[in-house]
User: Fold this.
Amino acid sequence: MSVYDLTGRKALVTGGAQGLGAGMAEALARAGAAVVIGDIQEDLGKAAADALQRSGASAEFVRLDVTDDASWEQAVAQAAGYLGGLDILVNNAGVEISSLLVDLSPDDARRMLDVNVLGTALGIKHGLRAMRPGGLAGAGGAIVNISSVAATIAFPAIALYSATKSAVDRLTRVAAMESGKLGYGVRVNCVYPGLVPTEMGAQLAQDMATLGLWPSAEAAVGDVIGLTPLGRLGDVADMADAVVFLASDGARFITGAGLPVDGGMGS
Ligand SMILES: NC(=O)c1ccc[n+]([C@@H]2O[C@H](COP(=O)([O-])OP(=O)(O)OC[C@H]3O[C@@H](n4cnc5c(N)ncnc54)[C@H](O)[C@@H]3O)[C@@H](O)[C@H]2O)c1
Assistant:
């Protein structure tokens, strides 16, 4: 069996109702894992899980607001109940609200900090509790956090978002250290995706035009591609396959790492 095979593994993907998270759930299922999608969007999340089931995968949906400790408690217990355990957690849920620093809205800043930083930290908390020895799953596993190329470069109008993604990077490294030192048997890594034209990515490009930083969304995207050695935007599968790798035994000696999946843009 390939070291990248996930047959028998049990995965929870946050923010899996659409975009990158939906693609990650699909790729994990294709690699053999049973998957639970956790999201605040119930209709879309259920539809994404149903689509996976129709393709032959084992998939369920749970309502999860990543900013809420009690919601995590309930969702992890529910997911582990559906799956019969938990080995993989992908902390993918995130929000991006563009703004120049001179126009920063404290409410928007708090929302990004809440979802991207607190949401990921609570995910790590509940993932480690569930997977460590004596936890409700208890067999170790892998956590993959979704940071961003924005944590590795300076790009205008995404300062707060970039700060939250740098925080995800630091959370990852400390979590890996604690998990290793305390013998939890859980590897913790993150990926830095480049720009992908999901709802979030397309909106970001549009915001660059609205804020007057580029003449159009297309021009902004063109410049991002120009900064990317591989000469194209990322797609959902590029990110999803990297998550499968970090979740698999192929990455068994990798923890506390951040993997750029950005066509070289951040290097
Ligand atoms: N698209 C890109 O270009 C890009 C680049 C780098 C990093 N990322 C990161 O990848 C992740 C996914 O991005 P995407 O492009 O798929 O975005 P998206 O907006 O298409 O999807 C985000 C998902 O997160 C969910 N979500 C938001 N708040 C939540 C909460 N409180 N609890 C549970 N779920 C919640 C949404 O309902 C949605 O399903 C995010 O963390 C984002 O920051 C995206």
